Amino acid sequence: MLKAHAISEIGAGEPPLVLLHGFGTDQTIWGKMAPELSAKRRVVLYDHMGSGASDFAHYDADRYRTLEGYADDLVEILDALDLRDVSVAGHSVSGMISLLASLRTDRIGRLIMIGASPRYLNDGSYEGGFEPKDVEDFLGLMELDFQGWARALAPRVMDQPDNPSLTQELVFSFSRENAELTRRFAEATFTSDYRAHLSECRVPAAILQAKADVVVPLAAARFLADHIPRARLEIMNVRGHYPQLSAPDVVVDAIERFLAETPS
After folding, report:
1. What Pfam families does its record include (predicted)?
2. Residue 71 to residues 2, 52, 249: CA-CA distances in angstroms?
3. 149 pLDDT higher than 90
4. How many domains, the chain?
5. Cβ neighbours for 135, distance < 8 A, ≥ 6 positions apart
6. Which DSSP symbol is given to 229?
7. Dihedral sign from CA coordinates of 258, 40, 103, 190
8. Domain that holds residue 192
9. Residue 63 DSSP label
């Protein structure tokens, strides 16, 4: 299990912090934040199965058809490393992956959700940000022209027109992923709906949301915070779905404040 997910660890100190990347990236997305966060604690990173340097031989299409399989992976990794009172910072879809895992184990002590959403599709009065046709077209482009999809999506989700190097960094991150497995992860992500599980969360949670994010509207972030019993919402003065790349210091500061306010 550990080798299959290309686990890496830096720093020392308890309680530990696990950093989970979102869809279309891998653990290197945390490169600007992990060194600073590891100055005070043990930081654990890994690649979701089918992403980055994970061992694709372990990929099981049935297990990863929904986010439940990724949550099971997190629980198994925490067990294997014998981590306790863990803080989990999950970006995007990993916000829900970490929440699902927290319902399966008592090893998780707090959650940090960065640009997370319980449902990406609009549903009546619920504003998720996408219509079913949007997702259908999105998945179709991934299947038809994966590199073209990466080049088209990165500028929109990064939303940093004055810093093209950041967009290129994201294009590179998307482009080097496995096309088929990334498309499957996208389908599991954008068709998911975990709104009914939010009230079951038993641990403190920080919802860190950019003030403008084409993937997750503010309404979805507010819904998330309103329906998790011990959640606090912080709207960060940044733009885009990848603040760990565009404004790492802002995200680190928000994480450190939350961890200081929710000790063991």
Report:
1. Abhydrolase_1 (PF00561)
2. 15, 17, 28
3. yes
4. 1
5. 120, 121, 190, 191
6. T
7. positive
8. 3-261
9. G
Q: What is the mean pLDDT of the chain?
A: 97
Phi, psi of 228 (to 5 degrees): -95, 120
What per-residue confidence (pLDDT) applies to 147? 96
pLDDT in tens, 42-56: 999 999 999 999 999
Can you list the alpha helix ranges (DSSP code H) found in the chain? 34-37, 67-81, 94-102, 132-144, 146-158, 164-175, 179-190, 218-227, 243-246, 248-261
The pLDDT assigned to 125 comes to 97
Tokens of 198: 């939010």
Residue pair 66/192 in contact (Cβ under 8 Å)? The answer is yes
| C-alpha to C-alpha distances, 9 to 45, 47, 181, 229, nearest whole angstrom | 6, 12, 25, 31
Residues in the chain: 264
CATH assignment of the domain containing 223: 3.40.50.1820
DSSP letters spanning 164-206? HHHHHHHHHHHHTS-HHHHHHHHHHHHT-B-GGGGGG--S-EE
Contact by Cβ (8 Å): 259, 87: yes
First to last CA, the chain: 28
**Mind telling me the catalytic residues?**
92, 213, 241
Tokens of 15: 């309680």
Name the pairing type of β-strands 86-91 and 17-20: parallel
Decide if pLDDT at 264 tops 80.
no
What is the reported pTM? Answer: 0.97
Give yes or no for residue 263 having a pLDDT over 90. no
Across the beta sheet with 205-212, the strand order is 8-10, 43-46, 17-20, 86-91, 108-114, 205-212, 231-239
For residue 15, say if its preceding peptide bond is cis, omega within 30 degrees of 0. Answer: yes
